[in-house]
Structure formats: C-alpha cells, structure tokens
Here is the input.
Amino acid sequence: MIYKIIKKISWFFQKITYDQYRRKYDISSSFRFNGYGIRIYGDGQFVFGENSYIGELSTCQSFSGYKVSIGEKCKISHNVRIYTQSAMADSDFSLEDIPTKRGDVIINNFVWIGANVLIDPGVTIGENAIIGANSVVTKDVEPFSIVGGVPAKFIRMKRCYKSNK
Here is the structure.
C-alpha cells in the first residue's frame, strides 16, 4: 500500500517536471514521456515532434546556440543519451579548457532508437532509420538504414513494405 502511494506521488512530481519541459521548450502536446527520470536540459533549442516518445531515464542536452530535433512518430527507447556538446576524446584532460565538439542533433521522422544508445553532437539520423540497442552513434545515419555497434556501423538497408490495411 505504501509503495503505491509513493509511486503515485513520484509520478505526480514527474508530470510536473514534464509539463515544465513543455512550457519551456517546443514540445508537441502529443509527444510522450514514457516513464520516470527523463531529463531535458540546456540553453539550446528542443523541438520534439508529434506522436513521438522518449523512454525512461533518457537524457537530452542542448548547448546554447544548438538544437535537438526529434521528428514525428519517432520511438526512442529507455536510457538514451543525446548531446549537442561533448569533450573531444583525444584532448589532454589535464588542461583547464578542454576542447569540445558541438553540433545540432537531428532525428528525422519515423526513427526507431533502441535502448542504451548514445548520440554524439552533430549527428543527423535519416528518416525511417533504426539504431540498434547499445550503440554509440558518432556519424550521420542514412534514411531507411539499420545501424548498430560501438561505434555504430551500417548493417543493411531496410526491406520496407506497405501494409494492406
């Protein structure tokens, strides 16, 4: 019984947070926050399209002057990380000012992103693409392609079909 009360209270506070995101950023009213602990932050721009969702424990960061754009009908699983700024891996971390990589992240319509994916700054994911679970996306992804791995590599093009419905 106490667990159910705590869960309802927790969900109430999550809903308040998600409503604040909608007021602060350009997030469609039909965009769904699927679960707890989804974090959106930064002084940049967020544009989240209609009938898309992002899963539990996911994070989107947009540095000032940059944008995270999620198209329509996108499926973003849980524990996905999307960043518009990141430290350069080959940098000397003993320096006071570590060089950073920055760029917009554009996720086009109808994209499916599996669980535990990291998307680097400056990446564009083409329409109807699939990103396999546990992947690190460091380069652009072509439309209708399937990629996966660390770093994500091309697997194959989708064999698309139209439903008879």
